[in-house]
Amino acid sequence: MSRNLVVVLLACIVLGLAIYLAFDIYKTAEEEVLTRFNECQLLIARRVAHQLEMYLAGLTTDLQALSSLPSVQYHDQKRMTVDVLKLFDRVRTIHVTEISIYDEDGTALYSTTARVIGSNLPRTVLEWAKNGESKGRVYVFSPIRVVAAEANQPSPHRPSYHQWLAMPLYQETIDDRYPKPTERFAGILSMTTDVKELFSEQFAQASAGTMPQQAWMMAKDGTLLFQSEHPEMVGRNIYQADTRCNQCHFSFNHAAQMLRQTQGTVEYQLKGYERKLAAFAPVQFGNILWIAVVNVAYDEVTSFERKEHMKMLWLLGVVLLTIGFTSHIVYRNYRLRETAEEEAKNWRERHVLEEKIHESQKLYRALFDQSPDGVLIIDPETMLPTIFNDVACQQLGYSREEFAKLRISDYEAVEKPEETKARIKRILSKGGDEFETKHRTKQGEIRYVGVTVRWLELADHPLLHCIFHDITQHKQSEQQLTESHTELRRLAEHLRSVREEERADAARAIHDELGQALTILKMDLTGLQNKLSREGGPLEQSPSEKITSMSRLVDETIKSVRRIAADLRPAVLDDLGIVAAIEWKARELQEKTGIECKLTVEPRDITLDRDRSTDVFRIFQEAMTNVIRHANASKTEIGLRLRDGSLVLEVEDNGRGITKDEISNTKSFGLLGVRERALAWGGEVAIHSAPGEGTKLTVRIPVSGPAAA
User: Fold this and answer.
1) What mean pLDDT do residues 567-580 have?
2) Among 164, 466, 574, 658, which is least packed by CB within 10 angstroms?
3) In angstroms, what CA-CA distances link 637 with 547, 599, 697?
4) Would you say 276 and 266 are in contact if contact means Cβ atoms under 8 Å apart?
């Protein structure tokens, strides 16, 4: 018995919960209906406001066109009547009741309504029109109360309200029939509209089915301009309410809210009336600000939803009752136990996961904020940073507030915006990139930056994880080192040139001066010897032998002088060129060392400038010196060829070979000199060797162009 009671109790609880959910669904649906209806009503109110603004703009255009006519500016009564009536016939269909013209003293000269002629304007209106700043402007005055005197007009007990638009007249139109245009004030042009008819028509057109009596208009100062439901209240002000107003209104808070906000929706209720929904929007034109209001009964909006809700509630109750009794009895204990275990397991797992996430967030934030480089996350669509550390701000000299508003193009100094977009597309396609660029700081300084970018995707939205490493100091050091190397090479080139010039001068002096002197000495000694041989006897043989010995010594001296001069700078290099010089040197080395030297030249007429010839010859000398001293070779093949605009010198021997350590040894000044001479002309040096298989030296030097910096 108790078990059945428990089942019934649980079923009632389930049913009550279902009813509560149904009621909650109803409230949610009702709120959604009200929200959408308010949005629709707000659109209607905006449409009314827009149509009224367009209407006033059209009337302003008509006034400006009429004020520019000569007949109006100069008060030509005959033509003025024709011009005004022509406009009035056109605009009377849009609720314009009269057009009037006043002189400079504010007296009505002409009007489409006879009762206006001769009346005077208020002094405040006249003072406004005479103000020079009012020229060309239209002033809209609040609706004025008019009690008609004609039989066809409303009775004095039911006054009508008209809207008055005024524009000052100045004599400005150029016309041969009138004097020269001036800036003199000539009067006031006005146009009057029927407020009730105007507002009724505008509300009816804009509401698209909403009844006209459900609309009203209010001025910014609280004056009621139009009320379709209570026309007797037109002209009253909410801030001047009396005891009679409290008979219908609980309060005027809803109207005060409209005046404060000027646009939106509000609910209100009058005594003895049902609750209403109102949407309001501002009408702004020139000096006026009106509030257009469209309202409807609250119950008319929600009645359909209530009917549907009751049907749904009945159906839901039956279904829930059936399901509750059947499923709960069968699966009660099983589901409760399983659910409890699963929830406990999920809670434990969730707790552990939350702790891991918390620790990961702490670790990530520590790494992010304490990184020595600028780290930031950039949205590729907006180019704006979403997350960044202080180092990124400090690198560019911005505060965090300023940096959050910077796009990539604001500090990128190398790439154009379209190039940056193209790079981002490549990064998104291949997953990342590393490159160097330049950034412009807030102070205008250019900094070198190494950028590492990786592509991330969070919540199906791609992001860029960027690391900015400032390499300005490294770049400056690298540039200084490059400049230092350049200066050293220039210095070495200068010293080499000076040394070669000195060698050439020394060789020329030894050859021309010392060689010439020794040659003359030999000629004198030979002549002396011949003379002594002819004149002397046996006693003179000893001096003759001495002279012969001296002559041989002189010959040897001359040979030594020539050899020294050739070693300093061979004359054949300057006289016959690089090919002849290498042939002479190869032949000389073969005679002295016994190493076979085979020379191949292609083509035979290779011609180089003086400095290149010198360096190529010295490279050949150094290569052959290494062969003689270290290679222990018996044969050398020498190649001198022109290939693709470069001179290629090859020296290959069959000696013992050379190891990698010997090639890279910094104390190997011979190879170092070969490399420096080649690099001075933008050339390159290659050495191929293996122990026991000989060595091949290949030097490639361009045959034209200046020396490398």
Assistant:
1) 72
2) 574
3) 46, 6, 11
4) no
| 464: enclosing H helix or E strand | strand 461-470
Q: Is omega for the bond preceding 603 within 30 degrees of 0, making it cis?
A: yes
| Helix (H) or strand (E) segment spanning residue 501 | helix 472-509
CA distances from 456 to 200, 315, 371, 462 (A): 60, 50, 19, 6
Per DSSP, 708 falls in state P
Distance CA 122, CA 348 (A): 84
682 within 8 A of 708, measured Cβ to Cβ: yes
Residue type, 471: I
Whether the CB-CB separation of 292 and 48 falls below 8 Å is answered with yes
User: Model confidence over 436-492: pLDDT tens digits?
Assistant: 888 889 888 888 898 888 888 776 788 888 888 888 888 888 887 877 677 667 656
- Strands 635-643, 432-440: pairing is unpaired
Between 349 and 24, the higher pLDDT residue: 349
H-only helix segments in 536-668: 541-568, 571-576, 578-593, 610-626, 660-664
Find the helix or strand (DSSP H, E) in which 246 lies: none
Q: What is the side-by-side order of every strand in the sheet holding 446-458?
A: 385-388, 374-378, 461-470, 446-458, 432-440
The whole-angstrom separation of Cα 565 and Cα 504 is 8
> Are 286 and 140 spatial neighbours (Cβ–Cβ below 8 Å)?
yes
Which residue in 646, 625, 645, 649 sits closest to 637, CA to CA?
649
What is the distance between the alpha carbons of residues 368 and 373, in angstroms, rounded to a whole number?
9
Q: Which two tokens stand for residue 92?
A: 């009377």
Tell me the per-residue pLDDT of 518-531, one tens digit each, with 9 for 90 and over.
776 677 677 666 76
SS3 289: strand
Token representation of residue 144: 């004025």
Phi, psi of 30 (to 5 degrees): -65, -40
pLDDT tens profile 37-81 = 677 777 888 888 888 888 888 888 888 888 888 888 788 888 888
Beta strand 596-602 with 635-643: parallel, antiparallel or unpaired?
Answer: parallel
Find where tokens 């003025």 sit.
Answer: 80
Residues 6+ apart with CB under 8 A from 98: 88, 111, 112, 113, 116, 191, 192
Report the distance separating Cα 470 and Cα 95, nearest Å.
73
Calculate the CA 106 to chain-centre distance: 60
In 53-107, at which residue ranges do the beta strands (DSSP E only) sit? 96-102
At 212, the pLDDT band (50, 70, 90 cuts) reads very low
* Tokens describing residue 71: 């007949």
What length is written for the chain?
Answer: 709
Q: Enumerate residues 6+ apart whose C-beta is below 8 A from 550.
A: 525
What residue has token string 């560019």?
396
Contact 96, 88 (CB under 8 A): yes
User: Six-digit token pair at 466?
Assistant: 């960027």
* Sign of the alpha-carbon dihedral angle for 294, 299, 303, 306: positive
> What's the predicted TM-score (pTM) here?
0.40
Q: Around Cβ 128, how many Cβ atoms within 10 Å?
A: 19
